[in-house]
From TrEMBL, chains A, B:
Ranges annotated as DNA-binding: 16-55
Coiled coil: none
Subunit record text: Homodimer.
Descriptive protein name: Redox-sensing transcriptional repressor Rex
Top-level taxonomic group: Bacteria
InterPro entries tied to this protein: CoA-bd, NAD(P)-bd_dom_sf, Rex_actinobacterial-type, Rex_DNA-bd_C_dom, Tscrpt_rep_Rex, WH-like_DNA-bd_sf, WH_DNA-bd_sf
Pfam families: CoA_binding, Put_DNA-bind_N
Annotated binding of NAD(+), by residue: 90-95
Similarity field: Belongs to the transcriptional regulatory Rex family.
BP term (GO), one: negative regulation of DNA-templated transcription
């Protein structure tokens, strides 16, 4: 497999393909075409073929791709063929929703614990996970060798939480708080911002007049 | 203002600029430079200047932009200078988190009601909003002239919910379910997918070895 630098939008699409390919594989499907993949994930088949050209050897010209082999290589590239321990900071509704989200475990992301500065939110959750005080953050990250943190605190607390995560050794952050985090270049942040997504919709509605 | 077709990544950035410009404006700042905007939202200043070239008349060469006028024009373009009624389908933790999210109202998105098929989840929430049965969806959308729906149901229910929304007259959807929705071309969907975002992180962690 060519290990070129893969652009981030391609990585996003590979993640979508992977989820579909895993479903197809578990249904016992052996060969799948770029048309079928594209239709399932809502991406033009020409784009699918371009993205999967990184995995050329699993294609059979004019027929399709060998599902199991392609799937396994895409998952290997995405590093979801291993388990990633994850922590969540903020045990409000959003943090609890994320901690109970089955899709994470299915893809190898294992929520180890939640953290919250509010003592009233600390303790054991019905799903068996613990909400720990922030003071336990550094030791947990170190002991469990955690690299990924999910921030679900309000905007005005997010930067401070990010700094605590980074000080503890976290290098990859999902940020749900509607604010831009200042982090060192070696820390990777993905922002998930509901307001921005809604504004793309209102922009589109406005364009239609 | 030139009304060219603006690419979606630019719209996303305009939404980020807008939030920062509104903050600056409310602090009484009159003039702001592209360097300052870029530093605040984590985007190179050359990109900021390119994006804001749509709004050229608010720039003062070598100095910056007139905050209040720029802000008002960006908000007008994004159509956030008006109130958009919004409904949420799915009253689990995620739906409740979204319904209580202050950032929405601040930007003109007004959650009118939640809907859930489970009678145990129906009723009034502590924040005063109602969780209504799905049977009330169509009348609510019609009466309140709602165009935007947020889907927070599990993946296996999402397509059916999307179809109910579209049948009721919704044309813009935020989809949190980890599945691709099949919708007619006139319906705009923005997917917010935690797993995909996590896999971009695991990909990056893997690349570092």
């Amino acid at each position: 497999m060519k290990m070129l630098k893969i652009p981030e939008p391609t990585v996003v699409r590979l993640s979508l393909y992977s989820r579909f390919l895993n479903q197809a594989s578990s249904k016992g499907i052996d060969i799948i075409s770029s048309d079928e993949i594209g239709a399932a994930v809502g991406i033009p088949s020409a784009q699918v073929r371009k993205d999967l050209s990184y995995f050329g050897e699993f294609g059979i010209r004019g027929v399709g791709y060998r599902v199991r082999e392609l799937c396994s290589q895409v998952d290997k590239l995405l590093c979801v063929n291993q388990t990633w321990p994850v922590i969540i900071i903020g045990a409000g509704h959003l943090g609890l929703a994320m901690s109970g989200y089955r899709g994470l475990q299915d893809r190898g992301f294992d929520v180890i614990a939640l953290f919250d500065a509010n003592p009233a939110k600390q303790g054991e959750l019905p799903n068996g996970l613990s909400v720990l005080p922030m003071e336990r953050l550094a030791e947990t990250v170190r002991e469990k060798d955690i690299r990924i943190g999910i921030i679900t605190v309000p905007a005005d607390a997010a930067q401070q939480v990010a700094e605590a995560l980074i000080a503890a050794g976290i290098t990859a952050i999902i940020n749900f708080a509607p604010t831009v985090l200042n982090v060192p270049p070696e820390v990777k942040v993905r922002n998930i911002d509901l307001t921005v997504n809604l504004e793309v919709l209102s922009f589109n509605l406005g364009m239609r007049g």
